[in-house]
Amino acid sequence: MIADELHMSARTLQRRLEEQDTSVKDIIDETRHQLALEYLCQDHLSIKEVAFSLGFNDASNFSRAFKRWEGKTPKEFRKAA
Q1: pLDDT(81) > 90
Q2: Which of 15, 11, 17 lies closest to 30 in space, CA to CA?
Q3: What are the tens digits of pLDDT across the range 22-47?
Q4: Distance of alpha carbon 30 from alpha carbon 36, whole angstroms
């Protein structure tokens, strides 16, 4: 779908991203990370709402990913913010 939007084949997109030492998966992961940081600063959103808005199936999967990104849970991040 992304390759189509860029008017190139999936393989061409993959090659170009490899040239930049990245992948679609890496870009999506980094985008989710940055959005998670922004969303968690919005107190009116629950952690569960943040998780679902970022495409996680449940809050526990989001918490594991967030801990990988930040070294702390979303709850710990909110307390420190």
Answers
A1: no
A2: 17
A3: 999 999 999 999 999 999 999 999 99
A4: 10
How far is the C-alpha of 47 from the C-alpha of 58, rounded, in Å?
A: 10
3-state secondary structure the chain: CHHHHCCCCHHHHHHHHHHCCCCHHHHHHHHHHHHHHHHHCCCCCCHHHHHHHCCCCCHHHHHHHHHHHHCCCHHHHHHHC
Pick the closest to residue 39 from 18, 66, 13 (CA basis).
Answer: 66
- Per-residue HEC secondary structure of 47-63 comes to HHHHHHHCCCCCHHHHH
Encoding tokens for residue 44?
Answer: 């009116």
Q: Which domains occur in the chain, in start order?
A: 2-80 (1.10.10.60)
pLDDT at 49 over 90: yes
